[in-house]
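[Discussion] Sanity-checking designs against the backbone

I'm trying to build intuition for which residues belong where. Below is a structure token string of 396 positions. I'd appreciate it if someone posts a full sequence so I can compare it with mine line by line.
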């Protein structure tokens, strides 16, 4: 099917190597009176990749999408599409389509006629319209539903009709503004897989806006994490999760244990850090520009922590903690613990862990491999904002 659509190119393949940028965000700032919604955004979105903009409400991701679509104009900077400056081009003259949370299907039209609406408006030959619509309906797995009305379809099926309608004119990019927000949890999870499959088959660039980290990690080739109008980091899901560039990114993506520490000394490419309780550990500096006595944060994911009832032997970092809460989560028990200095951490206890029946106030030892920890600059409390809400919020 993909060969009949635009040429298929993976976001991490040849297009990436050639720097085949479809959408350019070049030093873009957007102000609404005195409020800065987006500040100095500067990145490119490649041909054929699934690119997500992720962040909490009000971070500027929807404003950035609206500028790409043409619904807003940059205050300064430039938006390019296929190498052409479209910063002041109206939406109807840009070769992009947008799918919103509310699909706005025509209720009186059949599925076929809904999808055919765009090419008919462009006076595309009837034979070509039929070919395109049938092809798209097969890709979205609705070939047997062409004669049905939207009211006869489920929410997930209606969304796939909206996708087919947006793709039938072969746009340079498809823009998706939290389109799964109105679906229930199981259907939303199923549609995440479907969206990625459809994107791979049609080979068109998808630009996806969400505040749901699971959606972004599941579907994306690359993710731009945004906060307060700034792009904090751009990378693959693996890079964002395992090597966050800031404390905010670490806390926003998944569950992260963030230990505020001070740098005791620096030796070559490593910094000596004192953990709560007096244990010292040497960690790679990476891109950090540390200062002796300066503040930093150690990030360790819960699944990388080992739990024991006795103090571990050897030179691995370790902490003595007390249990504050235990939550059964099927294959694991989520243990909330507290360090001697009051820092709260989370670890996972699995069936394979040889531990006695634990209760609050019991003492444990935590340890991890050196490479499991990431040293991040500064101490930042922004990650304490709620990132798990699936409530649809209005944002700039």
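Best answer:
Here's mine. Compare freely.
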């Amino acid at each position: 099917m993909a060969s009949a659509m635009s040429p298929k190119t993976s976001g991490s393949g040849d297009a990436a190597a050639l720097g085949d940028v479809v959408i350019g965000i070049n030093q873009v700032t957007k102000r609404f009176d005195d409020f800065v919604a987006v500040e100095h955004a500067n990145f490119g979105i490649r041909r054929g990749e699934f690119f997500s903009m992720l962040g909490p409400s009000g971070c500027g991701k929807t404003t950035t999408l609206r500028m790409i679509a043409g619904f807003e104009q940059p205050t300064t900077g430039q938006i390019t599409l296929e190498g052409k400056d479209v910063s002041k081009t109206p939406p109807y003259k840009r070769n992009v389509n947008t799918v919103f949370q509310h699909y706005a299907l025509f209720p009186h039209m059949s599925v076929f006629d809904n999808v055919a609406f765009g090419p008919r408006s462009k006076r595309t030959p009837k034979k070509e319209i039929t070919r395109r619509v049938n092809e798209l309906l097969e890709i979205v797995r609705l070939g047997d539903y062409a004669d049905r009305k939207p009211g006869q379809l489920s929410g997930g099926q209606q969304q796939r009709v909206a996708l087919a309608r947006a793709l039938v004119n072969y746009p340079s990019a498809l823009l998706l503004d939290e389109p799964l927000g109105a679906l229930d949890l199981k259907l939303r999870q199923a549609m995440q897989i479907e969206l990625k499959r459809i994107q791979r088959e049609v080979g068109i660039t998808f630009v996806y806006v969400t505040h749901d980290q699971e959606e972004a990690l599941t579907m994306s080739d690359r993710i731009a994490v945004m906060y307060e109008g700034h792009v904090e980091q751009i990378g693959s899901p693996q890079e964002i999760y395992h090597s966050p560039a800031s404390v905010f990114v670490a806390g926003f993506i998944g569950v992260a244990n963030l230990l505020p520490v001070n740098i005791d000394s620096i030796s070559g490419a490593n910094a000596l850090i004192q953990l709560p309780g007096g244990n010292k550990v040497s960690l790679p500096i990476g891109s950090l520009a540390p200062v002796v006595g300066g503040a930093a944060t150690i990030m360790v994911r819960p699944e990388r922590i080992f739990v024991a009832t006795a103090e571990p032997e050897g030179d691995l970092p370790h902490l003595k903690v007390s249990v504050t809460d235990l939550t059964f989560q099927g294959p694991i028990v989520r243990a909330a613990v507290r360090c001697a200095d009051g820092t709260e951490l989370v670890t996972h206890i699995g069936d394979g862990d040889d531990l006695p029946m634990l209760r609050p106030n019991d003492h444990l030892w935590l340890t991890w491999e050196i490479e499991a920890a990431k040293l991040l600059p500064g101490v930042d409390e922004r990650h304490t904002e709620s990132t798990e809400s699936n409530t649809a919020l209005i944002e700039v």
